[in-house]
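agent> call fold_tool(seq_1)
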Amino acid sequence: LIVIEEAHNYFTEYNDFINRIISEVRKFGVGLCIVSQSPSSISAEILKNTNIKIIHSLKADIDKRVISDSLSLPSSMVNFIDKLDIGEAILSAPNIKNPIVVKIKKTF
Protein backbone atom coordinates (compact mmCIF):
# COMPACT_ATOMS: atom_id res chain seq x y z
CA LEU A 1 0.00 0.00 0.00
CA ILE A 2 1.34 3.40 -1.00
CA VAL A 3 -0.16 6.36 0.87
CA ILE A 4 0.07 9.80 -0.73
CA GLU A 5 -0.82 12.55 1.76
CA GLU A 6 -1.72 16.05 0.59
CA ALA A 7 -2.38 14.59 -2.86
CA HIS A 8 -3.64 17.93 -4.15
CA ASN A 9 0.02 19.00 -4.22
CA TYR A 10 0.83 16.26 -6.77
CA PHE A 11 -2.31 15.49 -8.78
CA THR A 12 -3.72 18.91 -9.64
CA GLU A 13 -3.89 18.51 -13.39
CA TYR A 14 -4.24 15.79 -15.97
CA ASN A 15 -1.06 13.74 -16.30
CA ASP A 16 -1.26 10.70 -18.57
CA PHE A 17 1.69 8.94 -16.89
CA ILE A 18 0.28 9.32 -13.36
CA ASN A 19 -3.23 8.36 -14.48
CA ARG A 20 -1.88 5.23 -16.16
CA ILE A 21 0.04 4.23 -13.02
CA ILE A 22 -3.03 4.72 -10.85
CA SER A 23 -5.27 2.75 -13.19
CA GLU A 24 -2.84 -0.16 -13.62
CA VAL A 25 -1.01 -0.72 -10.30
CA ARG A 26 -3.84 -2.88 -8.93
CA LYS A 27 -3.00 -5.74 -11.28
CA PHE A 28 0.40 -5.89 -9.58
CA GLY A 29 -1.14 -6.12 -6.11
CA VAL A 30 -0.27 -2.53 -5.21
CA GLY A 31 -2.82 -0.35 -3.48
CA LEU A 32 -2.83 3.44 -3.50
CA CYS A 33 -4.36 5.59 -0.81
CA ILE A 34 -4.72 9.15 -2.06
CA VAL A 35 -5.46 11.61 0.75
CA SER A 36 -6.50 15.24 0.33
CA GLN A 37 -8.47 17.84 2.24
CA SER A 38 -9.32 19.50 -1.06
CA PRO A 39 -10.80 17.05 -3.59
CA SER A 40 -11.57 19.90 -5.99
CA SER A 41 -7.80 20.35 -6.45
CA ILE A 42 -7.31 16.79 -7.68
CA SER A 43 -7.58 15.83 -11.34
CA ALA A 44 -11.01 14.45 -12.30
CA GLU A 45 -9.23 11.49 -13.95
CA ILE A 46 -7.60 10.59 -10.63
CA LEU A 47 -10.96 10.69 -8.86
CA LYS A 48 -12.48 8.53 -11.58
CA ASN A 49 -9.74 5.91 -11.22
CA THR A 50 -10.18 5.44 -7.48
CA ASN A 51 -12.60 2.70 -6.47
CA ILE A 52 -13.09 3.30 -2.77
CA LYS A 53 -13.74 6.78 -1.48
CA ILE A 54 -13.94 7.82 2.17
CA ILE A 55 -15.23 11.36 2.51
CA HIS A 56 -14.99 13.15 5.84
CA SER A 57 -16.51 16.57 6.52
CA LEU A 58 -16.00 19.10 3.73
CA LYS A 59 -16.93 22.76 4.11
CA ALA A 60 -16.09 24.30 0.71
CA ASP A 61 -18.96 24.22 -1.79
CA ILE A 62 -16.60 23.42 -4.66
CA ASP A 63 -15.26 20.35 -2.81
CA LYS A 64 -18.78 19.16 -2.06
CA ARG A 65 -19.76 19.65 -5.71
CA VAL A 66 -16.75 17.64 -6.96
CA ILE A 67 -17.54 14.79 -4.59
CA SER A 68 -21.22 14.95 -5.49
CA ASP A 69 -20.38 14.65 -9.18
CA SER A 70 -17.82 11.91 -8.59
CA LEU A 71 -20.18 9.78 -6.49
CA SER A 72 -23.52 10.86 -8.01
CA LEU A 73 -24.74 11.76 -4.52
CA PRO A 74 -28.33 12.81 -3.92
CA SER A 75 -28.66 16.44 -2.80
CA SER A 76 -29.70 15.37 0.72
CA MET A 77 -26.35 13.62 1.18
CA VAL A 78 -24.39 16.51 -0.37
CA ASN A 79 -25.96 18.88 2.17
CA PHE A 80 -24.93 16.46 4.93
CA ILE A 81 -21.19 16.39 4.03
CA ASP A 82 -20.36 19.50 6.07
CA LYS A 83 -22.33 18.19 9.04
CA LEU A 84 -20.39 14.96 9.51
CA ASP A 85 -18.98 14.60 13.03
CA ILE A 86 -15.40 13.66 13.83
CA GLY A 87 -15.06 9.98 12.96
CA GLU A 88 -18.01 9.97 10.56
CA ALA A 89 -17.55 9.61 6.82
CA ILE A 90 -19.38 8.81 3.63
CA LEU A 91 -18.15 5.54 2.15
CA SER A 92 -18.40 4.67 -1.51
CA ALA A 93 -17.13 1.37 -2.89
CA PRO A 94 -17.86 -0.79 -5.95
CA ASN A 95 -19.62 -3.46 -3.87
CA ILE A 96 -21.91 -0.91 -2.14
CA LYS A 97 -24.92 0.06 -4.26
CA ASN A 98 -25.25 3.57 -2.79
CA PRO A 99 -22.79 5.56 -0.66
CA ILE A 100 -23.38 5.14 3.08
CA VAL A 101 -22.49 7.05 6.23
CA VAL A 102 -20.11 5.15 8.50
CA LYS A 103 -18.68 5.75 11.98
CA ILE A 104 -14.96 5.07 12.25
CA LYS A 105 -14.03 3.80 15.70
CA LYS A 106 -11.02 5.22 17.48
CA THR A 107 -8.59 2.34 17.92
CA PHE A 108 -6.09 3.80 20.36
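agent> call fold_tool(seq_2)
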Amino acid sequence: MSSWARKFYAKQAEWSGIYWGNVEERHRRKAEWAYSVIGVPPKRVLELGAGGGQNAIALAEKG
Protein backbone atom coordinates (compact mmCIF):
# COMPACT_ATOMS: atom_id res chain seq x y z
CA MET A 1 0.00 0.00 0.00
CA SER A 2 1.32 3.43 -0.89
CA SER A 3 2.19 6.04 1.70
CA TRP A 4 -0.71 8.34 0.76
CA ALA A 5 -3.18 5.43 0.98
CA ARG A 6 -1.96 4.49 4.46
CA LYS A 7 -2.38 8.10 5.59
CA PHE A 8 -5.81 8.31 3.99
CA TYR A 9 -7.14 5.13 5.60
CA ALA A 10 -5.68 6.05 8.97
CA LYS A 11 -7.45 9.42 8.83
CA GLN A 12 -10.67 7.77 7.63
CA ALA A 13 -10.60 5.42 10.63
CA GLU A 14 -10.05 8.41 12.93
CA TRP A 15 -13.00 10.28 11.41
CA SER A 16 -15.32 7.30 11.36
CA GLY A 17 -15.89 7.67 15.09
CA ILE A 18 -18.12 10.60 14.16
CA TYR A 19 -20.61 8.33 12.48
CA TRP A 20 -21.10 6.09 15.50
CA GLY A 21 -21.13 8.80 18.16
CA ASN A 22 -23.96 9.35 20.59
CA VAL A 23 -26.09 12.48 20.75
CA GLU A 24 -24.34 14.49 23.45
CA GLU A 25 -25.14 17.60 25.45
CA ARG A 26 -23.29 19.78 22.92
CA HIS A 27 -25.63 18.55 20.18
CA ARG A 28 -28.63 19.34 22.36
CA ARG A 29 -27.28 22.85 23.05
CA LYS A 30 -26.98 23.42 19.30
CA ALA A 31 -30.55 22.18 18.89
CA GLU A 32 -31.72 24.63 21.58
CA TRP A 33 -29.99 27.47 19.76
CA ALA A 34 -31.42 26.44 16.38
CA TYR A 35 -34.89 26.15 17.92
CA SER A 36 -34.59 29.68 19.30
CA VAL A 37 -33.63 31.00 15.86
CA ILE A 38 -36.02 28.93 13.73
CA GLY A 39 -39.09 29.19 15.94
CA VAL A 40 -41.88 26.82 16.82
CA PRO A 41 -42.28 23.64 14.75
CA PRO A 42 -43.34 22.46 12.28
CA LYS A 43 -40.34 23.70 10.32
CA ARG A 44 -37.90 22.06 7.96
CA VAL A 45 -34.17 22.14 8.55
CA LEU A 46 -31.52 21.05 6.09
CA GLU A 47 -28.41 20.00 7.95
CA LEU A 48 -25.40 20.41 5.67
CA GLY A 49 -22.16 18.76 6.65
CA ALA A 50 -24.19 16.48 8.85
CA GLY A 51 -21.41 14.11 9.89
CA GLY A 52 -23.16 11.41 11.86
CA GLY A 53 -26.46 13.26 12.06
CA GLN A 54 -26.30 13.85 15.81
CA ASN A 55 -27.45 17.47 15.43
CA ALA A 56 -30.41 16.38 13.30
CA ILE A 57 -31.34 13.77 15.89
CA ALA A 58 -31.16 16.35 18.69
CA LEU A 59 -33.47 18.65 16.69
CA ALA A 60 -35.86 15.78 15.97
CA GLU A 61 -35.97 14.92 19.67
CA LYS A 62 -37.25 18.45 20.33
CA GLY A 63 -40.12 17.87 17.93
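agent> summarizing second result for user.
Helices lie at 3-15, 25-38, 54-62. The chain has one domain: 3-62.
agent> awaiting next instruction.
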